[in-house]
Fold this sequence. Notes:
Distance between the termini: 99 Å
Strand order of the largest sheet: 3-2-7
Structural class: alpha+beta
Shape: elongated
Amino acid sequence: xxxxxxxxxxxxxxxxxxxxxxxxxxxxxxxxxxxxxxxxxxxxxxxxxxxxxxxxxxxxxxxxxxxxxxxxxxxxxxxxxxxxxxxxxxxxxxxxxxxxxxxxxxxxxxxxxxxxxxxxxxxxxxxxxxxxxxxxxxxxxxxxxxxxxxxxxxxxxxxxxxxxxxxxxxxxxxxxxxxxxxxxxxxxxxxxxxxxxxxxxxxxxxxxxxxxxxxxxxxxxxxxxxxxxxxxxxxxxxxxxxxxxxxxxxxxxxxxxxxxxxxxxxxxxxxxxxxxxxxxxxxxxxxxxxxxxxxxxxxxxxxxxxxxxxxxxxxxxxxxxxxxxxxxxxxxxxxxxxxxxxxxxxxxxxxxxxxxxxxxxxxxxxxxxxxxxxxxxxxxxxxxxxxxxxxxxxxxxxxxxxxxxxxxxxxxxxx
Length: 415
């Protein structure tokens, strides 16, 4: 975090922002963002550049992106549809959440920038995720500001906004009051992944390149002579024209030996150690990455990883939209994600039956769990009649006793 105390420089930034505002509303200015740059650069790559770590980040972001935003309360209720469909003019809700979570996992800090039709009016009409790379917070006249980078086409711009308007998500939140900690704890594992990948490439190349070893009977003084002899042997014996499988060499060579090509195999223990380090760091496992997880594994993953992120997103966006009075009146944004999506059919049936019978779930809500379309009249709650409030048991029994019995209708043949 850098302090920005130069008044002239601050005036330049504010003037630039005002000039950009003349083009139109902020909602129409956000175009073509290319904000990512590697956080981990020891091996000239980044956390998101390695296949294993990217797969872990993708698994988390993919499941978080299924969350559905619900606005509670009357204020900003019309904003619910915006959040559910197009939080900004570049992204759907799924894309917005996916990118936001990816930034959070890769950088441990993600910003949400509000979009205004008219900033002076303060009415938010959209949200946009912003990378924390090259971003900094500075203070001017006792107020904090966020300076961040965006790229429009081939030009890169610096934007500033009051920090109080910005939503901030943090992962590994410890040392800094504004930013989550870096990913240096994973540096050694990333180096191992890089070394292993390089070893695989080199091993495959070497095992695939040498086929024969020839020992010359006479010494050749110049390197050009070795090259000429090697090319001669290849032309005579190792071309497609040699279809009988016979290898012939003359008395220039005292010995010829075929080299058996063996596949390069990575050390299994080392590979497992690397995978476990990455899985532990991101809170995933191999089954989640390959989409073959069980119901129990999904519930554990939801509780341990997905739900904390959706709660944080809900709280951060709620703070952006509502003030203290709104909170007291019950206003909030909730990103809900159904854990029952990956439950087995018997589990779904048991839960839907129990909750519907008790009036806790409507038939349409039950159909949604089975990925079935809603039906007309399916938003009514039902409850089974035999369930009676304990304090009203005596009254219910009296009502039953007082109920007149229906006269039995005898069959004409009965005597």
